[in-house]
Amino acid sequence: MIVLHVHVQVRPDCVEGFIAATLDNARHSICEPGVARFDVVQQADDPTRFVLVEVYRDADAPARHKETEHYARWRDAAEPMMAEPRTRVTYRDVHLPV
């Protein structure tokens, strides 16, 4: 499994719009055969910061995800809402009961 943590900081006036766009993307993403999980978490002490926790079944699944209509819709909606470019950290699973 491939685990990605995508860190996003959005502009304060865009928090609700970002949540709406990201939940739409997450709901569609978990229907993809290569996606095991797609979690969205918001930082408790700074509501403008989010982490998308994406768990993929194989190494090719992240690229296939980026080819979907719902990803393109999210990217086009979310990028203008970001206070800074998003960052991504890739992990390998050690113990991940999915």
Characterise this structure.
With 98 residues, this protein is α+β, with helices and mostly antiparallel strands. It has a single domain (2-92), classed as Alpha-Beta Plaits (2-Layer Sandwich), CATH 3.30.70.100. The chain has helices at 15-29, 61-65, 69-78, and strands spanning 2-9, 35-42, 49-56, 87-92. Strands 2-3-1-4 form a 4-stranded antiparallel β-sheet. Helix 1 (15-29) packs antiparallel against helix 3. The longest helix is centred in the first third of the chain and has 15 residues, at 15-29. The chain is globular. The chain starts with a strand and ends in a 6-residue tail after the last strand.
List keywords for this structure.
98 residues, alpha+beta, Alpha-Beta Plaits, four-stranded antiparallel sheet, 3 helices
What's the short story on this structure?
The protein is α+β, with helices and mostly antiparallel strands and 98 residues long. The chain is built from three helices and four strands. The protein has a single domain, classed as Alpha-Beta Plaits (2-Layer Sandwich), CATH 3.30.70.100.
**Strands of the biggest beta sheet: in what spatial order?**
2-3-1-4
What's the total helix number? 3
Helicity, in percent?
A: 25-40%
Q: Find the count of extended strands (DSSP E, 2+ residues).
A: 4
Class in CATH?
Alpha Beta
Question: Spans with pLDDT under 50 lasting ≥5 residues?
Answer: none
Order of helices and strands: EHEEHHE
Largest sheet: 4 strands, antiparallel
Strand content: 25-35%
Oligomer: single chain
Q: How many structural domains in the coordinates?
A: 1
The CATH topology name reads Alpha-Beta Plaits
Mean pLDDT: 96
Sum up the overall morphology in one term: globular
Separation, N- and C-terminal Cα atoms: 10 Å
SSE-based structural type: alpha+beta
Judging by the overall fold, what is the CATH architecture?
2-Layer Sandwich
Rg to the nearest angstrom? 13 Å
